[in-house]
């Protein structure tokens, strides 16, 4: 260079070349991302500032401008991606216009959003009569049961409408009957597990331009499908003999899976006890005639239709002297392993089937115990209050009353009792329950009475 000044035109051309090179370096890694297209419909009579669509911008993405098109003067785009009207759309009625929104990312990438806007008469646009519907269906019904309350859920404004159900796909399905949408269950429902579902019904036209949505709140109705269940199969109550009439001796409980009110009653009437229907408390109404009673109990719910407990519970009631070491008051929680002598009483309290034998009784007496004819020498124990006793074969030494009292029939003579010095006899036990739930059985008890000098 000799220091000669270059012409201005040459300087400008060189500067332009440098600028182009710089821009090329900056943008060499920038990409033009694929266009994204949306289709929407708007009423022709909306006022300016009506939001037509909102572009969901990504992090680092900014709106550049609304690109010029034939109808772009009717719209504008905001920095947050909202596309809105800036003029009345009446001149565009019946037209579908295309808008293009240019955006860029921090790294230089660019992306264009294409928005097709159908301007329609508001009376012909898709719409539901209500924005939200409440539907009902009973629990425990089979799959395919139709939800009630959706009779007026058909979209209006278009003849050829397609529907889709959003949410609850594993529980509900959408059916079309004569073009009217109906919702049915896919499976049997359980109100106790879930009592309400929220769905959305979407309607759109065949071009996919117009769309309307309605919310559906599905309420699962309770059906009386759980009968009460007793918390125990057998309730044990140990009661002091000094209780008085109308004292409450214990309480039984049952649970209802539907949460219904449980009512209690005796399966068979008793002259000695009653049960409070609302609470399950067992009450003494007459003085006890025996030391042990066994009641059968039934529970049912206070609903229509009424459901009854599938199995009866039992209440084993045992009267004891107040000082007895086994007396526990009004409790059902007795650890029988701690009381081996009482375990036999627990076992013998279970129902005796036809033809079973009860335990042989072996008692020891002196000759003087049988010196008075008619004297009660011991008492056979009832396992349930309706039992009566009868000696099976005629015995010269003893006789048995219906209430189980064993009496001296003939004065005992030690020398005449034979080599074993015992009095053996069999007793037949009959259940006189009016419903004859247990029937009759024989050879239930064998008694042995020995005599000592």
From TrEMBL:
One Pfam short name: Cadherin
UniProt cross-references to InterPro entries, sorted A to Z: Cadherin-domain_protein (IPR050971), Cadherin-like_dom (IPR002126), Cadherin-like_sf (IPR015919), Cadherin_CS (IPR020894)
Main location: membrane
Any one GO biological process: homophilic cell adhesion via plasma membrane adhesion molecules
GO cellular component: cell-cell junction; plasma membrane
Location of the Cadherin domain: 129-230
Subcellular location, record wording: Membrane
One GO MF term: calcium ion binding
Keywords from the UniProt entry: Calcium, Cell adhesion, Membrane, Repeat, Transmembrane, Transmembrane helix
Protein name according to UniProt: Cj-cadherin
Source organism per UniProt: Penaeus vannamei (Whiteleg shrimp)
């Amino acid at each position: 260079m000799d220091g000669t000044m270059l012409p201005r035109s040459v300087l400008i051309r060189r500067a332009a070349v440098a600028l182009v090179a710089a821009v090329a370096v900056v943008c060499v890694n920038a990409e033009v991302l694929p266009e994204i297209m949306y289709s929407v419909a708007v009423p022709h009579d909306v006022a300016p500032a009506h939001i037509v669509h909102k572009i969901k911008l990504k992090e680092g993405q900014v709106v550049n401008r609304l690109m010029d098109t034939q109808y772009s003067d009717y719209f504008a785009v905001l920095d947050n991606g909202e596309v809105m009207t800036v003029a009345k759309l009446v001149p565009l009625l019946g037209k579908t216009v295309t808008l293009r929104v240019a955006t860029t990312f921090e790294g230089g990438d660019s992306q264009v959003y294409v928005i097709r806007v159908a301007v329609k008469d508001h009376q012909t646009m898709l719409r539901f009569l209500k924005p939200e519907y409440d539907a009902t269906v009973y629990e425990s019904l089979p799959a395919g049961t139709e939800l009630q309350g959706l009779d007026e859920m058909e979209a209006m404004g278009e003849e050829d409408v397609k529907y889709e159900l959003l949410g609850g796909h594993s529980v509900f399905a959408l059916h079309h009957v004569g073009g009217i949408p109906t919702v049915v269950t896919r499976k049997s429902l359980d109100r106790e597990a879930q009592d309400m579902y929220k769905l959305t019904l979407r309607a759109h036209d065949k071009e996919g331009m117009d769309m309307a949505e309605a919310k559906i709140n599905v309420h699962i109705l309770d059906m009386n499908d759980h009968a009460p269940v007793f918390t125990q199969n057998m309730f044990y109550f140990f009661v002091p003999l000094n209780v008085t009439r109308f004292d409450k001796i214990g309480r039984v409980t049952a649970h209802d899976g539907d949460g219904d009110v449980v009512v209690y009653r005796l399966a068979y009437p008793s002259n000695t006890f009653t049960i409070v229907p609302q609470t399950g408390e067992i009450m003494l109404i007459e003085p006890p005639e025996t030391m042990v009673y066994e009641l059968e109990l039934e529970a049912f719910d206070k609903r229509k239709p009424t459901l009854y407990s599938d199995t009866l519970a039992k209440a084993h009631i045992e009267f004891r002297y107040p000082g007895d070491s086994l007396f526990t008051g009004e409790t059902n929680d007795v650890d029988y392993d701690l009381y081996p002598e009482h375990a036999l009483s627990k076992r013998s309290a279970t129902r005796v089937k036809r033809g079973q034998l009860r335990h042989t009784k072996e008692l020891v007496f002196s000759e003087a115990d049988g010196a008075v004819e008619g004297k009660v020498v011991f008492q056979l124990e009832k396992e349930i209050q309706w039992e009566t006793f009868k000696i099976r074969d005629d015995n010269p030494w003893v006789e048995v009353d219906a209430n189980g009292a064993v009496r001296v029939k003939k004065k005992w003579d030690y020398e005449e009792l034979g080599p074993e010095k015992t009095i053996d006899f069999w007793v037949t036990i009959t259940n006189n329950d009016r419903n004859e739930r247990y029937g009759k059985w024989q050879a239930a008890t064998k008694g042995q009475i020995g005599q000592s000098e």
